[in-house]
Structure formats: structure tokens, C-alpha cells
Amino acid sequence: MRPTFRTAGCSSLNEAFRTPKNPRVATILSAVLPGAGQIYNEKPWKVPILYGGILTNTYFVDFNGRRFALFRDALIAFDAEEPNQFPNLNRDGLVRNVNFWRRNRDTTFLIYLIIYVLNIADANVDAHLSGFDVSEDLSFRWEPYQEISPLGLPHFGLRLKINLN
């Protein structure tokens, strides 16, 4: 079912009768090249946010990897009974640090996957919602609400009604 568009509140006929984007195309574009689906959906402002997240995560992968390598080398030096950079840490402390920085590094690799999946999901959802009517004809209002329960008792409350005039 294709959504219908109204011309009320639209500045041009082109804006009023804009065809919705194809979610399949947006999903495939984002899967092939992150950010391409956002550009297809005419939301290019999302691309710098996406690549900013990727670059930030790249920094943390490098940082955690360097710390992991530093403590791993210190642990190897400790086991070989050579002097290491952390004379105040015993073997258990070095092992804890190696495991901590390895876990952080591995978690940042998982964050790449999360960013990639969110990129694809955002493009798909945005394409699905591209035909959604966001004209100024929408209004909300609260109304009193009464319902009779199966036992015959009245229930009172408020309901939110959406008008699509």
C-alpha cells in the first residue's frame, strides 16, 4: 500500500507528490557502502555522524591494542625474569591488565559490527518512513474516555486522539 500525500501545507507540488524511497535499495546501498543508504534517503547529514563513530572506534581499537601489547610484553618479560616497565605489579596484576586491555580491544571490534548494523537499520527505517505524512495538518487532542467492563462497571480515563484533517 502506497501512502497518499496531500498538497496542503506543502511549498511545492514536487514536495507534495514525492515518491517514497525503496527500503530494499536503501538497505543494499548501506550494506555495500556505509552511508550510501542515508544519501539515497536524502539525509546526507547523517553520514559525518556515521563516519565520526567509525573513526572514534578506530582510535579506541588502536589505543586498547597498544595497551594490550604493552602489558603482554611486560608479562612476557616478567616470566622471562627480565626487568619490565611495571616493577610495582606482580604477575597477577600483569595478567589482569593483559585480560582487561584484550577485552576492551575485542569489545571495540564488536562496536564496529554494531555501527554497521545500525547504519543498515537506519537506512531501511528511514526509507520506510520517507512517505510518512508530516504536514502541519496533524493535530493531537485529549478526550475523556468511558468504557463499560464485562462486569458492568464503568471505567473512566483520557485518550489521545490524532486528527489527520
Write structural notes for this entry:
The chain contains five helices and two strands. Strands 1-2 form a two-stranded antiparallel sheet. By secondary structure, it is an alpha+beta fold. It starts with 12 loop residues before the first helix and ends with a strand. 55% of the residues lie in helices and 13% in strands.
Would you kindly provide a brief summary of this structure?
This protein is α+β, with helices and mostly antiparallel strands and 165 residues long.
Main attributes of the structure:
single chain; 165 residues; alpha+beta; two-stranded antiparallel ribbon; 5 helices; 2 strands; elongated; disordered N terminus
List the helices and strands and how they pair.
Layout (H helix, E strand, L loop, with lengths): L12 H4 L6 H10 L3 H5 L5 H34 L11 H38 L9 E11 L5 E11 L1
Helix pairs in contact: 2-5, 4-5
The residue-averaged pLDDT reads 87
> Which residues sit in consecutive blocks of at least 5 with pLDDT less than 50?
1-9
SSE order in H/E notation? Answer: HHHHHEE
Radius of gyration: 28 Å
Global shape: elongated
Helical amount among residues, as a percent range?
55-70%
Secondary structural class: alpha+beta
Tell me the fraction of residues in β-strands, as a range. Answer: 5-15%
